[in-house]
Design brief:
The chain has 7 helices and 4 strands; from the N terminus they run ααββββααααα. It is an alpha+beta fold and about 300 residues long.
Length: about 300
């Protein structure tokens, strides 16, 4: 039984799917936190312009005007976690050089810096969807952990139930075989009595019916055994290609019967403190309270 439980914990498809949910919640939490990370932007422009001179007197004999300009821009934007504000910083720098002698400053250099802060005053001032998701994501992460634990415990319980049910079906086959053997023996004895003339031939009819019923019950027992074995395999294998799927499973562990006294009050307290389905519902209360907060 313990070996079957270990195999189920490793290969059960439902558990494999449940183990992915906490990982998905971790990625969701990271994406919500990334909303408040600063984003940086940067641009660079280089412009080289050449044009013929239209006034030789002003340009002192230069035949071609050559101007080269470069512009740099850096920016940073970040959403704030407090009251829905956002911060923006920008720095720009430019440099221009030309061969025109009429320019007073050559090269010409410029720079600029700006800072802006945007604050919401009404809508989304206290809470917004992103901040709400950031508050509820850890709660959902805790819930998925409890759901995974609940799935593990349910799988263990299902394996135990299916294990003992399969054991019962196998024992039922043995019982039905003995019932069939007994009915066939009674039929043979009845036929022998007919041959020696101690009973009428019609008296064998009830034994023939008993044999037919025993054969039907034996066939039904085998069908129930196959179904129980298939249900048990579904908890242990990860697909039709699993070698265990085409094998015959024979439970070897024997049930142990022992009388135990049950303290009802202690059992109730244990259930209230340890049942995973109840633990899963408890974190949902603060999550709903956060969702109901006005923005």
């Amino acid at each position: 039984l313990e070996q079957a439980i270990q195999i189920s914990l490793e290969t059960n498809l439902d558990l494999q799917s449940a183990r992915i949910n906490p990982i998905l919640q971790d990625f969701s939490l990271r994406s919500f936190r990334a909303s408040y990370l600063p984003s940086f932007t940067g641009t660079f422009r280089n412009n080289n312009n050449k044009s013929p001179v239209t006034n030789n007197i002003l340009e002192n004999g230069i035949s071609t005007n050559i101007t080269n300009s470069q512009n740099y821009t850096l920016g940073m934007n970040q959403n704030m976690r407090w009251y829905g504000g956002s911060l923006g910083l920008s720095f720009s720098s430019g440099r221009s050089i030309t061969n025109q002698p009429s320019q007073s400053f050559n090269p010409n250099v410029s720079a600029g810096f700006s800072a802006t802060y945007t604050q919401r005053l009404l809508a989304n001032f206290k809470i917004d969807q992103t901040r709400n998701n950031l508050r509820t994501a850890p709660i959902q992460r805790h819930i998925t952990d409890l759901q995974l634990q609940n799935s593990i415990e349910n799988t263990k319980a299902s394996v135990r139930t299916a294990y003992w049910l399969l054991r019962q079906r196998i024992e039922s086959i043995e019982i039905q075989k003995r019932t069939l053997e007994l009915a066939e023996r009674q039929l043979r004895e009845s036929q022998q009595k007919v041959e020696i003339g101690t009973v009428a031939p019609i008296d064998t009819t009830q034994f023939e019916v008993a044999v037919a019923n025993a054969q039907t019950d034996s066939l039904n027992a085998e069908i129930q055994w196959r179904n129980a074995e298939l249900d048990f395999k579904r908890l242990l294998v990860n697909g039709a290609n699993d070698p265990l799927y085409n094998s015959t499973i024979n439970p070897t562990e024997q049930p142990l019967f022992a009388l135990q006294s049950v303290d009802i009050q202690a059992a109730v307290q244990t259930a209230l403190s340890q049942r995973t389905d109840l633990e899963t519902g408890k974190p949902s209360i603060p999550a709903c309270e956060v969702d109901d907060e006005p923005s």
